[in-house]
Records
---
Amino acid sequence: MAKKLKYNLDEIVDVKALQEMQDSFVQATGVTCVIVDQNKKRITKPSNPPNLCVKLARGGDAEVMYCQECDLKEVKKKIMYARQ
């Protein structure tokens, strides 16, 4: 069972600086990136999101929840791939 953390990520890091680092990383690599905490809450704004998300799915609350779930599924796939 995962240990509950005492603090949220946005309480211990400078979110603005984290966003700037993320944006620089994305600019250098061309990947899409968003940072979430252990509660699946977005800490940064998405950098370089796919055009489909920008045009269709980033509107209301329901769409944002769908996009967050989609983002998390991609992260989990990449973690599993990296462990192989």
---
Amino acid sequence: MKQCIYMVVTTWIFQMRKTLTKHGNSYALVIDKALLEILKIKPGTPLDISTDGRVLIVAPIEDQKRRRKFDKALEETNRDYGRMLKRLAES
């Protein structure tokens, strides 16, 4: 049996301009509290930092327990409503 996955994606952009500040022998990027609250980042939150060579990407490391709970709910939804959602998408 094929599994269909449907996602609703909502996006919005929170933009700010910042300047690096000297912090010892390194540089620091100070992030405003409002943005940290949106991302649910607190002191001690582990972060993934990556780049494509042009853009710096900072994201909280995904909570594995929360991810497993989401995956389970998605699997149950697909099991219970997958065929109906597929027919709806095709009509």
---
Amino acid sequence: MNEQSDQQSICHAIVESLPYPVVFVDLEHIIRYMNPAARYHYCQERGHKDLVGRCVFDCHSNPASTEQIKAIVQRFRSDSKELFLKVNDRNLRVYVTPVRSSKGDLIGYYERFEMNLALSRQSSPAGA
């Protein structure tokens, strides 16, 4: 195995092992990758089928969501910073992050989730 292939395998294994959903979408708004947590969340919990290869707007059919996603991608064309969207009803923070090629060109974006620790710490027993 060469070094680049080894690094790709390691990166893939890391993302696959994350306990939170990660979804990569290209600039045509086509879902290109979902880690196991994302497949479980969107397919098992929310009832979507075979989302890889489909347009993200099939999941976000609300016109306000569609416009928000388009505006975020437009912003990513000139700004490389991750955007915090919200804390969802499962107390997970939702972020959208731009993905750039090694040349710096925007190639897509990914949605990721993480536990909202600030709220979790407030609700946990003292000393926990």
---
Amino acid sequence: MISNRGFISLGRWEAFSLIALLGVAMPLKYIYGYPLAVRMVGMSHGILFIVYVTLAAVLARAEGWSLPKLIRCWIASCLPLGTLFFERELSGRD
């Protein structure tokens, strides 16, 4: 079973992969003509995103999250770096 701490870590990796995709891989593709970077980083980001969304549902059930909290998590996962903002809710910081 995954803990809140592990889920937060996964969210950070997902956010980092988006930064790498937009800040490193996309310029490598469009400025330097190296499309393989987008394939590799894009696939990694996609896998992390799918795992994050799936584990959110699993953790929500295990921890007894309300449906609105799960929906906020899913919405945050669709926004750039949104997982970092949802992390505050999970850790209880405001």
